[in-house]
Amino acid sequence: MALGGGGPQRGTAAANAANLRRRKTAGGGGAAGGAGGTMLQFYTDDSPGLKISPNVVLVMSIGFIAFVAILHVMGKLYFVRREA
């Protein structure tokens, strides 16, 4: 900040009050109880729903990609046979 600026000097009571006010409003809606309402809630044991390991998700994704590729190949072969 420039010399003689509009803000209070560091270390004064006004500066401390301004910093405290900034800290309170800048936090947003953070929960006091740890990870309640954050992205971490999805990765805890307390979260509701089906528990799937990352390896299962990876295998299912690769399987889905392979299934779609096979359907594309079968569709091309079926289309070629139908024209002949």
UniProtKB/TrEMBL annotation:
Chief localization: endoplasmic reticulum
Location of this chain's protein in the cell: Endoplasmic reticulum membrane
InterPro entries to which the protein is assigned, alphabetical: Sec61-beta/Sbh, SecG/Sec61-beta/Sbh
Domain of life: Eukaryota
Keywords: Endoplasmic reticulum, Membrane, Protein transport, Translocation, Transmembrane, Transmembrane helix, Transport
Transmembrane parts of this sequence: 56-79
Cellular component aspect of the GO annotation: Sec61 translocon complex
Membrane topology: Single-pass membrane protein
GO biological process, one term: intracellular protein transport
The protein's role, per its UniProt record: Necessary for protein translocation in the endoplasmic reticulum.
Family: Belongs to the SEC61-beta family.
Entry protein name: Protein transport protein Sec61 subunit beta
Native organism: Anisodus tanguticus
